[in-house]
Amino acid sequence: HFAPLPPPLRTPPKHTPQMPPPLKLPQSLSQRLLLLTFTLTLLFTLSLASFSLFYYLFRQIANIGNSEDDSLVPCQKCIHLSSGKKYAVASDHRTCSQIGLNMLKMEGNAVDAAVATSFCIGVMNSFSSGIGGGGIMLVSEGGTPQIRVIDSREKAPYAAHENMFVDNVIEAQIGGKAIGVPGEVMGLYTAWQMYGKLPWRYLVEPSVALARVHRVNGLVEVVLKSKQNTILTHPQLDGFRAVYAPNGQLLKEGDFVRNEKLAQTLQIIADEGAHTFYNGTLAKMIVDDIQEVGGIITEQDLKDYSVRVTEPYCTEFFGHRVCTAQPEISGGVANIMALNMLERLYSRIPIFSKNTSHKKNKLLFHHYTIEAMKWVFSHRMHLGDPDFVDVEEIVNNMLSKCYAGKVAEHVLDDKTLDDFHEYAPLNNTIYADVPNQGTAHFSVVDEERRSVAFTSTVNLYFGSMVLGSRTGILFNDQMDDFSTPGEYNAFNIPPSKANFIAPGKRPLSSMSPTIIYKNGDFFMSVGASGGPIIITAVMQAILNVLVFQQSLDVAVGGPRFHHQLLPPQLLVDKEWDQESIRYFKNLGHDLQMIDFGKHQSLAVVQAILVGEDGG
């Protein structure tokens, strides 16, 4: 896939001027040898230059990524800040960001870069996302406020039913039954068909080389260790062990990962497109991989899968237009409600707009933010797939500034409410999310200011942990994102009827990819990974930039907190100052301090921001 050879030089036009006298060749042997040596040296130099150019182009297209930089450990406290005048890619792996940038350098656009980056993340950080999962993508139209949402969330198989995990919830997390119908390949292909410029295979093939061999990074080692007992003992994980524990020992940082089956699968996708995954060469192999470990997905499930293309939800906040994913199953609608509430709550602070750095104002600001978190999570518990559940009323309320204002009236300035029932919008049905999900987010903006915000996931770390023996695909465990009747969580909270399993249904999600505009121009793209904490992490990143006007590294890398109503606990980064911690306690919160440098509990945020100079 290299640039074609230049066309042959055209024959110069005929002309009549006098020809110069013929060149007199050297007559002596020494002169002839000198001329021959000069000619050979010139040819060697030109050949070497041509080879160097050829090799550079090859590396641009197939960056196999085995340098020391590829072993850098992505973590919450590792804030990688960079800037550029033309375009940017922000992902949780440097090699994958570079592959995305390579697509932009090859005159691709933001969608081309996003697709290539996504395939790479699925290989390099397979615990978080990949072609065995799904996602939600926002794409803006060349810097304008026109946005499309491409929903490629997984679906429950046709053979699924709401009682399938009663008395055995672990099967919703590990093994074949945990797998939902994957949507990521179809979602990426749909985005490319709508907007892409480069040939499809250019976007996939860099990850083919990575799948064949790449080094384990530090974060992958940590996640592997956290799952060690399951990996080494579960009877359905032979395929996983063959790749990540090939000699009976888990791979460590710096070891080589070799997944030749996945490389072959990606090459087939590069050659044949997405249809091969759902109704072609790969479909039967995928079904055989899943069914041999007890899964219930059939070829018909794959054949009938489709993505949803919709409009975004948007709101005006502090002079900016904030747009997020429309599917009611995403965390986007929760953030819209939170921003609408906070806009009303901030008006209570007399000098807030004049002095947002005042310590007393900041503390009250944080209190309002925590209360907004609790209220939006109480509302979010009533959401589900709109194709199966009537969510029109609750969604309309969550999008309404008027309704947000009424809810804000229940927020007290001097304390938080102890009884979670006081936050219930409709009734007391509660759904408690499962934390620490394996999710990835990245953002891309190109030279024309077309932007992409894409959050993809396999759900929990390494998904179902089923790695196909035929395809090398690591499959999701999205069935765990549904609720199961009669199964209470660790805090004795009942599940949500709106999120019960049904054939073909999409589960509840926390994904919150967001694009923000200022005066009609692209201003910011942001999203996060980390289960339900995605919602509050994205919320705080937006507030830090739009309200406190912080630089991007401070807005993303500063201390955060999280409250999801249930359990009734406020997660607080240990880096908060003591005055703020005392303030949170005095409000009545039960605090759980989190070591930001050692855990992924407070989400990983990826963002792109347009600077004051337009870069």
Automatic annotation (TrEMBL):
GO biological process: glutathione catabolic process
Active site: T439 (nucleophile)
GO molecular function, one term: glutathione hydrolase activity
Binding of L-glutamate, residues: R153, T457, V458, N459, D481, S509, S510, G531
Gene3D superfamilies membership: 1.10.246.130, 3.60.20.40
Transmembrane segments: 33-58
Pfam families attached to this UniProt entry: G_glu_transpept
Superkingdom of origin: Eukaryota
Keywords attached to this entry: Membrane, Transmembrane, Transmembrane helix
Protein name (record): Gamma-glutamyltransferase
